[in-house]
Amino acid sequence: MFIDYAKIIIKSGDGGNGATSFRREKYVAAGGPDGGDGGKGGDVYFVVDPDSNTLIDFRFNKKYKAQNGENGRGSNCYGKNGEDCYIKVPIGTVVKDFKTGKVIVDLSEKGQKELVLKGGRGGKGNTHFATSTRQAPNFSIDGEKGKEKEIILELKSLADVGLVGFPNVGKSTILSKVTAAQPKIADYHFTTIDPNLGVVKTEYGDSFVIADIPGIIEGASEGIGLGTQFLRHVERTRLLLHVLDVAGTEGRNPVEDFYKINEELKKYSEKLATRKQIIVANKIDSVQEEQNLKEIEKLAKKENLEIYKISAVTGEGLKELFNYVSEVIKTLPKEEIVDVEDRIVYTLEEEVEPFTVEIINGEFVVQGPAAERIMRRVNVGDNESFAYLQRSLRKIGIDDALREKGIQEGDSVVLVDWEFEWYD
Prior knowledge:
Elements: E1 5-11, E2 44-48, E3 63-65, E4 85-89, E5 93-97, E6 103-107, E7 113-117, E8 148-155, E9 161-164, H1 171-178, E10 196-201, E11 207-212, H2 227-234, E12 239-245, H3 254-268, H4 270-273, E13 276-282, H5 291-303, E14 307-309, H6 318-331, E15 356-360, E16 363-367, H7 369-375, H8 383-396, H9 398-404, E17 412-415, E18 418-421
Parallel strand pairs: 1-3, 2-4, 9-11, 9-12, 12-13, 13-14, 16-17
Antiparallel strand pairs: 1-8, 2-7, 5-6, 5-8, 10-11, 15-16, 17-18
Helix pairs in contact: 7-8
């Protein structure tokens, strides 16, 4: 089964907590702090798997999580770092943020490995907070939480040449004649529901990959039928062979079909509208009237496009067509088809850590990642740790924000899930 779309959840590992510990040795009356740091949480990577060509594994496994870092321990023992999570995907996979639709990474190269989510940093043990005046710090820092993201995986076939056209114009037959691919072929609509790939080898020893893109219909760019799924695979091709039924076997007008298909390509992507095309007039062995062929010739002249007249069934004209295609491919540069201006990679360091201050039922409620980070760092039952909390509130601006809201001495402050009385 060919699966080219999947939605999954990925999560990086939490950082381990730092330890609050003191030396307890015989004959050492007042041992100093010896709490070790927590281990770093595991990262999440995407890796190109050369042996995979479908996203079917993601149909059953929807969540991928890196390992958490271990907590620190006494005697300055550091927690072990969490193991990274490596997600294997086929070449040609595009990873997108589900909420924003932005491209996170485009995995289109062999051996490519990309870091997508960084694990949380490990917390600091109380050893780090010892000073000349604070020799027994009774607090440490908890590890940072990992990040969780819902993402989309899209597989776009990597082919040099794409066969496009309405259903039942002979694309699958062409592919079966010029490659070793064996697509299903029959005389009814939407025989092909998945893209088929094949390698064309010319008589001169050249080779290139060709894709039979399932039939595109009107409204495909808006998702009618399986339109957007089919158009996804056209994006990466460098050359389009636009197959037209010159015999009009279904009563269709091939010239009208040409413009309808190109309109759908343009609606889906401006780049597709400018992709080089060659008109392939198929089924010339079944032509009853010459009018369609004459109209297609006029079309090719008007649009300044090459035209090749073939019969996929008898093989007439196929050798000449694909020898020419082989030469054209050599002149077309391989470009990065996916727009990457908005490419983003999530890291904990890069994300802003805001906070909010709201008055709810007479209480000043402080929430947000910055506030949560502070609370992970303090032991509210320890005076020195509480003093550290006050300094942190001033440092990141929560003090000023509370005063702007009109806080007075004696008012209640709820910091994440802990309540205390405000005083200057």
